[in-house]
Every structure is written in C-alpha cells, then in structure tokens.
Amino acid sequence: MVLFALRQQVLRCSSHCRTWARLPQRQRSGCVYSSIHGFNQGEIKEKLQAFHGGSIDLLKQDSGIAVLTINNPSRMNAFSGSMMVDLEERVSQLENWPEGKGLIVQGAAETFCSGSDLNAVRAISNQQDGMKMCMFMQNSLTRLLRLPLISVALVEGRALGGGAELTTACDFRLMAAGSVIQFVHKHMGLVPGWGGAARLVHLVGSQNALKLLGGAVKVDPELGVNIGLVDGVLEGHQNAEGAAPLLQQAENWLSRYTKGPAPVIQAVKKVVLSGRELPLSEALRTEKDIFGTVWGAPANLEALASKSKHK
Ligand SMILES: CC[C@@H](C(=O)O)C(=O)SCCNC(=O)CCNC(=O)[C@H](O)C(C)(C)COP(=O)(O)OP(=O)(O)OC[C@H]1O[C@@H](n2cnc3c(N)ncnc32)[C@H](O)[C@@H]1OP(=O)(O)O
C-alpha cells in the first residue's frame, strides 16, 4: 500500500510538471501580457502607486474560504492606482495558498465598487498610460479568475464600470436585493478594458452582452438571474432584521462547493478552468493530468477504504 501511494505521488509530481510544461510561459503564470508584448509591469506599478487611497484587504480563514474586500468607501470603493497594485499582490498571495478552497470578493461599507477612481483616470488619460493600466488590470483579473479556488463576487449596492468587470472575474455572482451591476462604459465614451467584455460574452452570450454594453443596462438581481449573469439572490441588506449578514449568507452558499479536502476542490476548479479555456483535445489531456494528481491521493484512498455510498 505504501509503495502504491509513493508511486502515485511520483506520478502526480511528474504529470503536474508535464501539464505545466505544455502550457506557454504566460499561461503558466496566469498572465495575458508579459515583456514579449512590450509590457513592463514594474514601470506601470510605479506609476499607479502615485495615485493612492483605499486598500484591498485579504482575510484567509481556517475554513479555506478567503475574503477579499475592496476598501475605499469615501469613493464608493473606486479603484485608486495603489489599490490596483494591492490587488495584484493579493492575487499572488492567493496563488500561494495550498489550503485555499474558496474566495469571496466584496466591497466595504455596503457597496461593491464604482470602477476606476476617476481622479486617477483623468491623470493618466493619455493613450499609452491607459493601455498599460488596461494590460496590468487584465493580467490581475485573469489571474484572479484562474486561481485554483472557487470564487464568488458578493454584490451589494453598486458594481459600476470596472466594478462590473471585476464581478466577471469570479466564478459566480451573488446579488443582494436592491443592488445593481452596470457596465457604464458607454456613458464614459469607453468600452470595458479589464477583460470584462470578453468574460461577459462567455457568461451571457454575445446577444445579451451586446444589450448590456450597448444599452449600459442596469442589471438588477432578477434580470441578472434571467440572463445567467447572477447565480443567486441574497436576502435584504447587511443587518436587515431576520436575515443573516450578507457575508455569512455568501459563505453558506459557497460552502456547499468547498466542502472537502483542498487538493480535491482545487482539482475541481482546475478541470473546469481547462474545459473553459482550452481547445477540447488539450482540455482532455489536461484533465487527464489533473486526474493523476487526485487518483490514489489521500482523499481518494480514504474514500475507497470507507466504502462510501452515495445515497
Ligand atoms: C477605465 C474606466 C472604467 C473602467 O475601469 O473600466 C471605469 O470604471 S470608469 C468609472 C466608472 N464609474 C463611474 O463613473 C462612477 C461615477 N460615480 C457615480 O455614478 C456616483 O458617484 C455613484 C457611484 C452612483 C454613487 O452616487 P451617490 O450614492 O449619489 O454618491 P456620490 O456621487 O455622492 O459619491 C460619493 C463619493 O464617491 C465619489 N465617487 C464615486 N465613484 C467614484 C469614482 N469612480 N471615482 C472617484 N470618485 C468616485 C464621488 O465623487 C463622491 O465623492 P465626493 O463628491 O468627494 O463626496
């Protein structure tokens, strides 16, 4: 039995290495842009740091569910430049969390996020800086979506512009009654640039995406559920009488998908991610390799030993 487990472990390591070796460097790191695209992360980070205010706070819990809070209440949780840098650092921390299983992204003080901080946007409104900021945020949000954690955006209040884009960088979206997701970009003379349009098309189809972007439609929970953007509606506001706090409701909702050992939950996310992002043949080979990481691993052996039934 020990030899069998050891062999499985060796196989798991080598198949993991093969999986990663097959992926291009930028996909391995989760990024879309690197130096080969003329992208210099250090340079834009330095520029963004100059526009400070607010923070992105990360709380890793023993349950394996982390809470990421967009925290800039005096500007309705708009993203300052330093918060963009913070986000990238928090994503790195989450990428290196072996015990992690789930993630909730929320806004502070009863609203989600009102997009980019318009003061920073005005200051970097030249084309070059705008493109660099766009590449930086696309990298961070792509890495967020590619985390081996099951993620959910908890939308309370408003998710506007870049805030609406951020919700699409999570696996699921939950909305509190009375909240709104709105891609307001058209009203700003823009289109999404943080990857929100591409992800929206995947989530709701091109017809609905065109309607939401072209009409800058206010998506309430009912519309969100009807078009498949929203996965659940939470009762009332924080502290509403009789209703559990929204964060608690979101944790309860998410915990049905994060029950179990971290390596298994992470493998679940990875097979779905490869199915979502890779062409079929490549997705099948990746699925085989991920399967190799859980086959004969402790959770699998325990389940076999306990002769579990699924009634
Ligand atoms: C690339 C750009 C694009 C992207 O990243 O993809 C964007 O995101 S562009 C930004 C899109 N967002 C907006 O345009 C939001 C504009 N703001 C509003 O529409 C309203 O403020 C609100 C969010 C609907 C809230 O309205 P209300 O409840 O009436 O409160 P106030 O308007 O008084 O707001 C309080 C306070 O917050 C400041 N605020 C709000 N959003 C931003 C923002 N995105 N950037 C900077 N500051 C913001 C607002 O100015 C108020 O400040 P004070 O006037 O100093 O009190």
UniProtKB/TrEMBL annotation:
<keyword id="KW-0456">Lyase</keyword>
<protein>
    <recommendedName>
        <fullName>Ethylmalonyl-CoA decarboxylase</fullName>
        <ecNumber>4.1.1.94</ecNumber>
    </recommendedName>
</protein>
<keyword id="KW-0963">Cytoplasm</keyword>
<comment type="similarity">
    <text>Belongs to the enoyl-CoA hydratase/isomerase family.</text>
</comment>
<dbReference type="GO" id="GO:0005829">
    <property type="term" value="C:cytosol"/>
</dbReference>
<dbReference type="InterPro" id="IPR001753">
    <property type="entry name" value="Enoyl-CoA_hydra/iso"/>
</dbReference>
<dbReference type="GO" id="GO:0006635">
    <property type="term" value="P:fatty acid beta-oxidation"/>
</dbReference>
<dbReference type="Pfam" id="PF00378">
    <property type="entry name" value="ECH_1"/>
</dbReference>
<comment type="function">
    <text>Decarboxylates ethylmalonyl-CoA, a potentially toxic metabolite, to form butyryl-CoA, suggesting it might be involved in metabolite proofreading. Acts preferentially on (S)-ethylmalonyl-CoA but also has some activity on the (R)-isomer. Also has methylmalonyl-CoA decarboxylase activity at lower level.</text>
</comment>
<dbReference type="InterPro" id="IPR018376">
    <property type="entry name" value="Enoyl-CoA_hyd/isom_CS"/>
</dbReference>
<dbReference type="InterPro" id="IPR029045">
    <property type="entry name" value="ClpP/crotonase-like_dom_sf"/>
</dbReference>
<dbReference type="GO" id="GO:0004492">
    <property type="term" value="F:methyl/ethyl malonyl-CoA decarboxylase activity"/>
</dbReference>
